């Protein structure tokens, strides 16, 4: 037994993670893949890594020093379960199995329970950053027991991205906490991407700018408060020219966005938790709408004319408005994502430190940005704030951008530019900001058709109006006083 860490599953993610591990001093990395050819390919291509390769799972397990630690990087779902079963059969109490794939956190909770019964630790670890992250340093969100993190923590810290001197890894919480937080990360990523796409659409349609000019705008934004990996790569994508046609790359790509499901999971779970995540949900829906060519064509065929675009007269001022609307909408999306984390932590019993989550997202992952420091500061200052929008920095940012935000949503509506992200974020903000909501009328409707009862603004108790009778009010539950 010579290896201190093993990797099972050597497709793109696993082989990159194994190479990352092997590049860190002190690690000897055992590798195993169901199909041996893949193992051979990796080992031959990277002799410098000094991999300990095994053709059989038995040899792989034997090559691990005790307590054994193995990271599974195989296809989420059945592949993961198959490997867990193989390892559980051969591991001993105290050994650690890590699932680094994109598992659904409900599966992780069930797997942890099943594996923990054998005395073996099971850690579901969200790993973000794609193949480059896996190789050069991802953001890592491990769940599982605190005990297993004592062994695993230093290994993960050695391969994680580093942001401002700190490794982008923290023990998120027990059992499925890591995969839950990874799921929310992906939901926020959907929202961030959609908002950026809407900003591009506005700059092009209303601002009249060509993709290359918009790339310049984004590159400039990347030097300011919007600085982020996603803004940076957006500029690169917009600058790209198609070699075949000479057209902007963005114009030759079919406008139907795909998704792999983690954004959908975020919204499904937010619905279950009763957390409004409209900014994230609209981003998921926007991809779904884009991928309905039949419905789009059907509506387009019925249209006589489209609204006149309210062309921007001062493009620089318009771009400034768009950047403020983008920032305010982004703040809302992140606030909603963190609300979902808070609700998940409460429901599933996780002691999640919001400031630490914001910090481990500063490097290695897709939503990496300086901006996350502001979120970390806000929760560090007061972990119990009701919403990020209450934190002084964000309250100020939204206040400063508010007028621009409204102008942009109004201009988009008048011009017929779809802004589901900007619009949902602004409506959410207004819903929190307005003194009275029409929810009072909804309560009245519910009481009318379903006797669902209501509370009054002026006294305690629960009431029902006899709508089909003489319409007098009765108290259905006595007041607490
Ligand atoms: P894939 O998701 O394409 O899975 C291929 C690997 O799974 C191969 O090693 C394959 O072995 C193995 N495998 C399968 Br399929 N069924 C198996 C079984 N029943 N028993 C044992 N091994 C099995 O690999 P990937 O794209 O490298 O992704 C790995 C994990 O990382 C996935 O969970 C994925 O969702 C996640 N991921 C994360 C990111 C990110 O940014 N965080 C990006 C991409 C992927 P074989 O060679 O014998 O077929």
TrEMBL record:
The gene is gndA. Gene3D superfamilies: 6-Phosphogluconate Dehydrogenase, domain 3, N-(1-d-carboxylethyl)-l-norvaline Dehydrogenase, domain 2, NAD(P)-binding Rossmann-like Domain. Catalyzes the oxidative decarboxylation of 6-phosphogluconate to ribulose 5-phosphate and CO(2), with concomitant reduction of NADP to NADPH. This is 6-phosphogluconate dehydrogenase, decarboxylating. It comes from Leifsonia williamsii. One of its GO terms (molecular function) is lyase activity. Residues 178-468 form the 6-phosphogluconate dehydrogenase C-terminal domain. It comes from the Bacteria. PANTHER family: 6-PHOSPHOGLUCONATE DEHYDROGENASE.
């Amino acid at each position: 037994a010579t290896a201190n860490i093993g990797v099972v599953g050597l497709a793109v993610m696993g082989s990159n993670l194994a190479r990352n591990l092997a590049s860190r001093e002190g690690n000897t990395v055992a590798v195993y893949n169901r199909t041996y050819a893949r193992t051979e390919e990796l080992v031959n291509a990277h002799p410098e890594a000094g991999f300990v390769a095994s053709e059989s799972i038995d040899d792989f397990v034997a090559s691990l020093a005790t307590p054994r630690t193995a990271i599974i990087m195989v296809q989420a779902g059945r592949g993961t379960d198959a490997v867990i079963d193989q390892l559980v059969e051969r591991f001993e109490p105290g050994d650690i199995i890590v699932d680094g794939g994109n598992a659904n956190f409900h599966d992780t909770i069930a797997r942890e329970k099943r594996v923990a019964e054998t005395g073996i630790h099971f850690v579901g670890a969200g790993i973000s950053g794609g193949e480059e992250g896996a190789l050069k340093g991802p953001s890592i969100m491990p769940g599982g027991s605190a005990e297993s993190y004592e062994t695993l923590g230093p290994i993960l810290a050695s391969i994680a991205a580093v942001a401002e001197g700190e490794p982008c890894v923290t023990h998120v919480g027990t059992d499925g906490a890591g995969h839950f937080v990874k799921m929310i990360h992906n939901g926020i990523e959907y929202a961030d991407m959609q908002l950026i796409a809407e900003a591009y659409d506005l700059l092009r349609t209303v601002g009249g700018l060509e993709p290359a000019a918009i790339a310049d705008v984004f590159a400039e934004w990347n030097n300011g408060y919007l600085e982020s990996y996603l803004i940076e790569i957006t500029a690169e994508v917009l600058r790209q020219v198609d070699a075949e046609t000479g057209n902007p790359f963005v114009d030759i790509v079919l406008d139907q966005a795909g998704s792999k499901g983690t954004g959908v999971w975020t919204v499904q779970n937010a619905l279950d938790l009763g957390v409004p995540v409209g900014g994230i949900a609209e981003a998921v829906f926007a991809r779904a709408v884009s991928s309905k060519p039949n419905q789009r064509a059907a509506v387009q065929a019925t249209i006589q004319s489209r609204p006149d675009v309210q062309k921007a007269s001062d493009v620089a001022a318009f771009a400034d408005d768009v950047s403020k609307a983008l920032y305010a909408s982004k703040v809302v999306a992140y606030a909603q994502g963190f609300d979902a984390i808070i609700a998940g932590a409460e429901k599933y019993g996780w002691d999640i430190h919001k400031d630490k989550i914001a910090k481990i997202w500063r490097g290695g992952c897709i939503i990496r940005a300086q901006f996350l420091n502001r979120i970390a500061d806000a929760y560090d200052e007061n972990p119990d704030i009701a919403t990020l929008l209450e934190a002084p920095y964000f309250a100020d940012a939204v206040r400063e951008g508010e007028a621009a935000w409204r102008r942009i949503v109004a201009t988009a509506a008048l011009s017929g530019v779809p802004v589901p992200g900007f619009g949902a974020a602004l409506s959410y903000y207004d819903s929190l900001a307005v003194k009275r909501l029409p929810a009072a009328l909804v309560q009245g409707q519910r009481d009318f058709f379903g006797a669902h009862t209501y509370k009054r603004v002026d006294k305690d108790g629960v009431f029902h109006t006899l709508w089909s009778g003489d319409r007098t009010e009765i108290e259905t539950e006595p007041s607490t006083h």
